[in-house]
Amino acid sequence: MEAYMSSIGSKLQMLYTSDHASVVSMNLFVALLCACIVIGHLLEETRWMNESITALIIGVGTGIVILLISGGKSSRLLVFSEDLFFIYLLPPIIFNAGFQVKKKQFFRNFMTIMLFGAVGTLICCAIISIGAMQIFEKMDIGPLDIGDYLAIGAIFAATDSVCTLQVLSQDDTPLLYSLVFGEGVVNDATSVVLFNAIQSFDLTNINAVIAWEFVRNFLYLFLTSTMLGVLTGLVSAYIIKKLYFGRHSTDREVALMILMAYLSYMLAELFYLSGILTVFFCGIVMSHYTWHNVTESSRVTTKHAFATLSFVAEIFIFLYVGMDALDIEKWRFVSDSPGTSVAVSSILLCLVMVGRAAFVFPLSFVSNLSKKSPNEKIGFRQQFIIWWAGLMRGAVSMALAYNKFTSAGHTNLRANAIMITSTITVVLFSTVIASFANLISHRIRIGTSYTGSLTTVFGLMTKPLISILLPHPKYQSRSLSFSSDPATPKSVTVPLLGEGQDSLDDLGGRDIPRPSSLRALLTTPTHTVHYYWRKFDNGFMRPMFGGRGFVPFVPGSPTERNPPQNQWH
C-alpha cells in the first residue's frame, strides 16, 4: 500500500512539474511576442526591420540561449503542432486578408490573379517536382518515391502571402500590390489543396485513370471549398439582417460574426476541403454583406478585432519559425554530411526561381492580350517584381514539410531530415534576404544614405536588383493616373487594402456600359462580368442578404442617422 501511494505521489509530482514547465514556456513565449511588437514599433521609423524580421531574429536568438542552457538538447519553448498552425493561427490571417481586401481591385484583376495563383502554382509545382526528381536521385540523399517528389513540389510552390506584402508598397505600386496579394492567397490555397490531393492518392503506379481522378479531385476541392465559404458568409449575412441583434446587444452580432468566420474554416476541415479557400471567400462575402448589416460600433469592433488577431498570429508564426530553426533533433541526422544539406537547399532555391520564371512571364504575356489600355498591361519591370516577390517561402511551406516528412515534429530518416532542414534554410534565407532588400530599396528610393554592416556580397546583389525592381517616378505617376478611355473603369490601380470597407457595387466607379457586340464582349470580359454582376447583386442579392444601401431602417440601426442611399445607379 505504501509503495502504491508513493507511486501515485511521484506521478502527481511529475504531472505538476510538467504543467508548471508548460506555464513557464507560455509566459516566456508571450513575453517574446510583446517584445517583438515593442521592438517593431521602435524600429518603425528607421524602416530597418519590421515585425516579421524582428520576430525571426528574436526567435533565433532565443533558440540559441535555450540551446546553451539545455546543454544542446533543445532550442524550443513550444513543440510544433500542425493543429496549432492550421486550426488556430492560419484562419485569422487568411480571413482578415479576405475581409480587408478591396474587392473592386481584386475582382478586376481576378483572371490574372487566378492565372498566377492557380495555374502558375501548378506549373511551378511540376517544374520543382521534375527538377528535384532528376537531381536528387543522382545525389542519393535517400529513398524518395514519386509521391514524395510531388509533395516537395507542392511544398516549395507555396509562397508566403504574409512576407510577400513586405516587398511592395500599396501606396507606390497599388496594381502590383493587388496582383501579388491576390496571387499569394490563391497560391497558398492551391498548394494546400494540391498537397492534400497528392497525399490522398497512391501515385507509385500512376496511370491515365489515376491521373484523371487526381485532377478531378483537385478541381472538386477547389470549387467546393470556394462555394462553402460563400455559402457560410451568406448565411451569416441573412441571419444578422433578419434578426438584427444590434437593437438589443452589439456583443451578440460581433460574437456571431467571429464564430461564423471560424465555423467556415472548421466546416471545410470537417468535410476534408481547403480551409484556406473557404475562409478567404467567407471573409470577402462577409465584408460585402454581413459587415454592412451590423451597427456602426460593431463595424469598428470587428474590423480591428480581425486585424489584431491576424497580426498576433503572424508574429507568433515568425517567432516560432526562428526558434525552431535551431532544433537540434533536425540537424543531428545531417551533421555527418552538411554539404549535402547545403546543396539540397541551394538546388531547391534555384528550382523555385526557375519555377516562378516559367509561369510569371508567359502568363503575364497571356494576361496582356486581353488588356486594351497600355496602363492596364503588366510591363516587364512589373513582371520582374512579381517574380521576385513570390520567391519567399514561409510558414505554409514549413507546416506542409512537417506533415510530410516528420512524425510529431521529429524524424529518424536521413532523407526526411535533409528535406526538413532544407525547408528551414530556404524559408529563413528567402524571408530575411527579400525583406531586407525591400527595406533597403525603400531607403534608397527616398534618398537616404546608408552606413551599415551589410556585407559586400549582399550589397552587390541588392543594388542591381533595386534598379530593376523599383519603377521610376515617371512610371509610377503614369500608373496612378486615371484612364482616359471612357469605357475603361476609373482606375485599375486603386490600393488593395485601405482604411475602409469598399463594396462591389462601386466597381469601376461609374456605370459600366452594356456590351453592344460580340467583339465588345470578348475584348472587355472584365467589364462585362462587372456589368451583369452589379445587376444581379442589386436586383437579388442585396434585397435578400443586405449590404450597403439595403440595410433595413430600424430604430437603433446603423442607418438611423444616415438613411440608406440608392445604390442602383
From TrEMBL:
This protein's name: Cation/H+ exchanger transmembrane domain-containing protein
Keywords: Ion transport, Membrane, Potassium, Potassium transport, Sodium, Sodium transport, Transmembrane, Transmembrane helix, Transport
Domain Cation/H+ exchanger transmembrane: 32-435
Transmembrane region(s): 20-43, 55-72, 84-101, 113-136, 218-240, 274-292, 304-323, 343-363, 384-405, 417-440
MF (Gene Ontology): potassium:proton antiporter activity; sodium:proton antiporter activity
Pfam families, per the entry: Na_H_Exchanger (PF00999)
Organism: Populus tomentosa (Chinese white poplar)
UniProt-listed InterPro entries: Cation/H_exchanger_CPA1, Cation/H_exchanger_TM
